[in-house]
Amino acid sequence: MSLWMIDVLALLPQTWQDWIMPPSTVPVVQNNPAKVQLSRISHVYFDHGDLEAFDRFAKDFGFVQAERKGNTIYYRGYGRDPYVYVASQSPTRRSRFMGTAFVAKDQENFDKALALPGAVIKDLEETPGCGRMITFARPNDTFFHVIYGQTEREFVEIPTATHDYQGPFNTPLEKHRKGRFQRYHDGPALVHKLGHFGYVCKEFEQELDFYTSNFNFVHSDILNLPKLPHIDVMTFMHLDLGKVFTDHHSFFLQRAPPGTSKTYVHHTSFEVSDFDTQLMGHKYLANKGWKSVWGVGRHILGSQIFDYWYDPSGFKIEHYADGDVVNEDNPTRKEPVGPVSVWGPELPKDFGDNKAR
Ligand SMILES: [Fe+2]
């Protein structure tokens, strides 16, 4: 819903407002040990209409192929997850988002997830790192996965495809880099890990209740409509790990505006190491002819430096760096929807739209 529509709605009598957009307040939730404890986000699944086209994009985006099995490609970053993105050829040639997998904290919590209604378990023995996965089919063809027992990757240093020499950085008063030079060359922005994803969700309250009642998702920021503060429309959620710091959001849900026909994934987001990497990656993707969505800029909530692109199927995919981390001492904040960036190009008017095909 655009800002002018909200302005008009705010002028209508309360009963009309409630009929067009019913009041909806997202309750602040607390984690507790009875819920399934997830330790981190791991990977996403997509069916692509043209897998070979996606494979070309994936290399330019900074994914590394971990393994290919027939019509499924497992891409990894350089983090501990054996893969962060699983792309399959769509049998119907229609592209679909097939859900995100999170890692259970331990066997006990994996078993707890298995006891939830709708849980379907399968072995991942044919995949890099193996392990087992539980899938929950949610409304509107969305899926949520919990994994456990994967063999993790080991890495000791951050690889780069663009940096010959970088750092330390000089500041106006302190010149840490003396007699040495910053040198870069063209290449993709190598991905570290999956950071977050989110839906524009038709079943906003129902799905929020499913995720926050059963798992350790806690709200970082809940956003309401300016002029209509009784309508919460967006939440950024993190995994509560107690005193351990975790990404400001690994999952967000946006209430689908009136007229939205179906829940859809808004974007998926992958971490890269630094600002130079992002700008080098942006230049590389642009030179390869891929289509930019929005970026490079700096978000406000989560503080990430962002850069959004369309993949060949029309899904939005983001590089991010320098995101905030929070822990149990950061309270949930409630605020009106405001500007999305502190700097960067103007927000595209169609940023919220679903262009996947
Ligand atoms: Fe994002």
From TrEMBL:
Under the heading Pfam families, the entry gives: Glyoxalase
What GO cellular component entries does it have?
mitochondrion
Q: Which UniProt keyword terms apply here?
A: Metal-binding, Signal
Give GO BP annotations, semicolon-separated. L-methylmalonyl-CoA metabolic process
Q: Where is the composition biased (Basic and acidic residues)?
A: 347-357
Q: Which GO terms describe its molecular function?
A: metal ion binding; methylmalonyl-CoA epimerase activity
Describe the location of the VOC domain by residue ranges: 193-322
Q: Can the keyword Signal be found in this entry's annotation?
A: yes
Q: Which domain of life is it from?
A: Eukaryota
The record's region (Disordered) falls at 327-357
Repeat as a keyword of this entry, yes or no, is no
Where is the organism placed in the taxonomic lineage, from the top?
Eukaryota, Fungi, Dikarya, Ascomycota, Pezizomycotina
Matches recorded under PROSITE patterns: VOC (PS51819)
The leader peptide range reads 1-17
Q: Which SUPFAM superfamilies match?
A: Glyoxalase/Bleomycin resistance protein/Dihydroxybiphenyl dioxygenase
**Which protein is depicted?**
VOC domain-containing protein
**CDD domains (UniProt xref):** THT_Oxygenase_N
Tell me the organism: Penicillium arizonense
